[in-house]
Amino acid sequence: MASLGTDTDAGPVYDRASRSERSAVGPGGLRPCNIVQGAVQEPVTLAESLMADAGWSASNFSEAGPNPPYLRIGGKLWVTLTEYEPCFSSYHRDRMLFRSKVSMTEHLGRYREIMVDPIAFEECYGPGEGTDATFPFGAWLEIREVGFKGLTLWGRRHGTVTLPLEPLAVASAVWLRGGGPHKASLT
Length: 187
Fold this sequence. Notes:
Elements: H1 19-25, E1 35-36, E2 39-40, E3 44-45, H2 46-53, E4 72-77, E5 84-89, E6 101-103, H3 104-108, E7 113-116, H4 118-125, E8 141-147, E9 150-155, E10 159-163, E11 174-177, E12 185-186
Parallel strand pairs: 8-12
Antiparallel strand pairs: 1-2, 3-11, 4-5, 5-6, 7-8, 7-11, 8-9, 9-10
């Protein structure tokens, strides 16, 4: 398996399985996640983390597109009807009219850092949008806050950066690492 880029690497190296490798790995191209008792042993994709932490299966993701699996970005309206929170939402309805939803703040709070592949931006915003002028791709960025405008991240070489929520839908192009006591907050 190829190693993932770090803040000190010369450039990013991504671990992407080809379509033929995906079919050999498992449904949706998802390989088993290496999470033991909440501690992340190695970087995992957003899809793998949802399967391990939230109990999702491959049926919660969509395969329609060049870089599956995909999920929906949604929100939860709490019982008080005054609190609305961004969440990851199952692509397919799993209980008649309802979808499984996982709080972004809660889920991302289990991880310390995030790295985004340029493919996520290009699928959401079009060709040529996955450049270093758009976002610091291939760098591990610390997760600071989850808000409606996006994730507030911080990197040693990049300072404070905002990641819009839309690219998170390409769950195969977002990597997470570093479990521990760090908690992302909701703004």
